Amino acid sequence: PxxxxxxxxxxxxxxxxxxxxxxxxxxxxxAEDLAQVYLNAxxxxxxxxxxxxxxxxxxxxxxxxxxxQSHQPQHYGDNLEGCGLENETAVRKAFYLLVRRVVKVxxxxxxxxxERSLLSEHTIALILHLLCIxxxxxxxxxxxxxxxxxxxxxxxxxxxxxxxxxxxYSALDH
Length: 174
What we know:
This protein has 174 residues and is an all-alpha fold. It is built from seven helices and two strands; from the N terminus they run H-H-E-E-H-H-H-H-H. It has a two-stranded antiparallel sheet with strand order 1-2. Strand 1 and strand 2 form a beta hairpin. Helix 1 packs antiparallel against helix 2 and helix 4 packs parallel to helix 7. The longest helix is centred in the first third of the chain and has 31 residues. The termini are far apart. The C terminus is likely disordered.
């Protein structure tokens, strides 16, 4: 939206400088708010973490957090044009911190040897929902860091049944 406004300003001087400044200011505020939301979500999930994954309250928080995410753009950095490199970096770092935290929870659940509860399986579904965004080339370092393909593979084996061993990939090597 802000790029179109700038182009309109350059082509047609009827768009005021104040309108452009207003869009940029809103994007700065949005970026600051978004970074803080991701940081708060990360801390909340950390507080509700336990040895098996998440306490029920953590699951409820994650579910509510993600239900509001449907109103967000497809990528965490979309619609932040003009907010400044520092703000874009703060949003990216905060989102990455959140992703690392939920992946840690997911790995606790997926690597546990015992019977998984329905709550644990739903938690995995919610985490996969969070990870279901449009990833951009600049995110590839994080994808490798969190071993996203391995996480997706382990998650897919979750529903196969008790005989499936998510740590044994030999059947998939053929």
